[in-house]
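Dear all,

This email documents one entry for the complex benchmark we are building for the journal club exercise. For each entry we list the sequence lines for every component of the assembly. Then comes the predicted three-dimensional structure of the complex as a token string, followed by one or two observations. Please use this as the template for your own entries, and keep the labels exactly as they appear.
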Amino acid sequence: MALRVKIWAWRIACLAVIIVLWQIASEQSTLMKFLFGAPIAIAGRLWAWWTSGVIYRHLGITLIETLLSFAIGCGLALILGLWLALNNLLAAVLDPFIKAANSMPRLILAPIFAVWFGLGIWSKVALGVTLVFFVVFFNVYQGIKDVSPVVLANARMLGASRRQLIHRVYIPSALTWVFSSLHVSVGMAFVGAVIGEYLGSAAGVGYLILQAEGTFDIDTVLAGIIMLTIFALILDTVITLIEGSLLVWRPKQN
Amino acid sequence: MAGQALVLRDITCTFPPSSASAAAYTAVSGAALALGEGEFVAIVGPTGCGKSTLLNVAAGLLQPSAGEILVFGARLAGINRRAGYMFQQDALLPWLTARGNVALGLELRGTAKREAAERADQWLARVGLSGAGDRYPHQLSGGMKKRVALAQVLVLGPEILLMDEPFSALDIQTRQLMENELLDIWSADRKSVFFVTHDLEEAISLADRVVVLSSGPASRPIADFPVDIPRPRDVTEIVQSPRYLDVHRRIWEILKKEVLKGYAQGKVA
């Protein structure tokens, strides 16, 4: 307990030192202030966002894009992963295509998605889906290949039909792998949403940053980045909580 | 004895070569084996002699290259629905609780969830695990997992029980405890049991009849000994009885040769 308090005290001290030094540095010259922004100005911007309520809409949109990308990406990956993992021929045929699609730097697809789906949320969702899909897909595939042959034989002896095997054995096993990669896949969905907004949009936190950059308003850019960081941390905490309740059956790793 | 619960006729199992340079492997060749209704038969043999292969054939999990299987007189095609199989390794579904695991077979066969859970609880109580229904397999000890596995199989009321060295991973005390419990449960309704083991003591203490398999490859049953030790038996005491020692000596004479043969082959390979 004492150690925890000590650790937290040091952390807060570190943060305070950084902020104070930053503020002092920014006051040395106009150029410094222009290049690095100033903590007090950034805090003022954040405060204004929250008190005026402007930020809610943008955060809400980024959150919706993240969740949609995650849900759709997971769904597609689960279906395709199951299909390929249970069909060796199909997996062999599609293997090079999947490798190629995975190796491609997919962020570069954002402009194409903007053309296809417009500047609304769907172009961001599409980008997020391409990022989430592969993380989840490989986990589903692995999860199904990972099913113990003994457990499988047991389920068959207990009377499982092929469909029941998929529902009761393959999918639960695949889901463990998906759950254990939730941090990465939700993170990917978030990256997709923000990058998509940044590359062209009419709303969202990425849009706020893009607007501010257009007028060299470094304070607002940094305020946006801090918003995103806090947001990502909250998302990560929520996932840790969900993970704990979904994977109760898994032995704790020490 | 009444009719035959399970008959294996001229079973041969050849596995395709694992690589281009390897030869095909014949695990079992021309094996014939019968299990009477209500009979407890133990199958012993040196390691790698195809004991599990035979059991998998009887379960319908493995299609033999030749031969046929009769289950209560009917030819077996696909999974043997009248048999329950207890595996050597952990076969519980790790994402289901003990109750969920025991209820699984019932649910797969269309029993309503609530009723399946009730019957699962009854069986968990019967194997001495009442109160452990909500635990997941990783929270159970080796012996408890075996009890759950036993309940998982027995809750379905199979007429034939196939057991593949189910207790081999347990320490000796737990193991004898489980053996006694198995005999106890078995004596209640006398299912037909095929019990595979490499442990002759276990085989004699449990079974009505001990079948010895020759060492692999191409192994087959080479000897068949009735065990006329009266029941009920206590596996911890039985090993001192003169009848036990006599049967043990006679079987070991044959089994020893096979074990040595298998050992010599293992050294060459």
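Observations: The domain at 37-246 of chain A is CATH 1.10.3720.10 (MetI-like fold). The interface with chain B takes residues 148, 150-151, 153-161, 164, 168-169, 172-173, 176, 248-251 of chain A (CB under 8 Å).
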